[in-house]
Specification:
5 strands; binds zinc ion; three-stranded antiparallel sheet; mainly alpha; 6 helices; single chain; Double Stranded RNA Binding Domain
Length: 275
């Protein structure tokens, strides 16, 4: 695979055509001539890239950089696969929800059909009761009519063919019967009412607002990118420590001794190493 950018010719991002000639250890950044003058004038540790680059391939920062590249690529692959799996899963879940919605709808329809059946049964009961009441009135009226007709026949007969005495007796003999018939017919007309039968519809659009709602629950994805700690500077930064104050105690004769090393221990005592 051809390298598209010649890395060796990589120039400063700020100063287009200037090459990176320096490396500032203080800021841990590459620097061109201009950058050096602008931003690193007071920096303590600035070195030439040619010197700083020695052993770069074996350096921790190079290893860290290549590992980070691998890590990012691996994670992008995992994220891509995870998102693809997630899409497939959400499509499956949405299809299950569609089935569940259909079941809820069918249950609602069955429920409404049951309500319709109960309503029609109630209608029949009420209708039958009203009709029964009217039939009873008809029967009672027929009975009154028959009894009254009997009396009419008697009064007609007396009127056409009877004597005054027979008319007088008829009036008084049937007085109570006529009063009873009058009471019965009055009773019917006084109690008589007229029903109308109507539907008081339940406004379903008002009482049923929905048959469910779609809920989402969100949890963090299982794919995690653990950020590696920032690449360390290629050159270790050693902070200069201030030297302790020493107290003169005695002379040391080192005339015939070869000193190979010299150090200061934690008790600020100078140690000379001769072997
Ligand atoms: Zn620059
Ligand atoms: Zn700097």
């Amino acid at each position: 695979m051809p390298i598209q950018t010649n890395i060796a010719d990589q120039c400063c991002f700020k100063h287009d055509n200037l090459p990176f000639e320096y490396f500032c250890i203080d800021h841990d950044v590459l620097s061109c001539k201009e950058c050096l003058a602008e931003s690193h004038r007071s920096c303590q540790k600035v070195m030439s890239v040619d010197i700083a680059c020695k052993g770069a391939k074996q350096s921790q920062s190079f290893i860290d950089a290549t590992e980070l590249v691998d890590h990012v690529l691996e994670t992008t692959h995992t994220i891509g696969k995870d998102e693809q799996d997630f899409i497939e899963n959400i499509v499956k879940e949405a299809n299950s929800v569609k089935t569940a919605v259909r079941i809820v709808k069918e249950e609602a329809i069955r429920h409404i059909e049951a309500l319709e059946k109960s309503l029609l049964h109630d209608l029949d009961l009420k209708k039958d009761k009203i009709i029964q009441k009217s039939k009873t009135t008809i029967k009672e009226t027929e009975d009154i009519k028959k009894s009254t007709k009997d009396k009419q026949d008697i009064f007609d007969l007396v009127n056409k063919h009877g004597s005054e005495k027979q008319a007088f007796i008829a009036v008084h003999a049937y007085k109570q019967d006529l009063t009873d018939l009058e009471k019965r017919v009055t009773g019917i007309t006084e109690k008589s009412t007229r029903f109308t039968i109507n539907l008081n519809p339940q406004k379903l659009q008002e009482s049923i607002h929905s048959i469910g709602s779609i809920e989402l629950s969100e949890v963090p994805s299982a794919v995690k990118f653990v950020q590696k700690k920032k690449c360390q500077s290629q050159m270790p930064i050693v902070q200069a420590q201030s030297m302790p104050q020493f107290v003169y105690k005695q002379d040391l004769d080192t005339k015939n001794v070869e000193i190979y090393g010299m150090t200061i221990n934690d008790n600020n005592e100078v140690i000379l190493v001769d072997t």
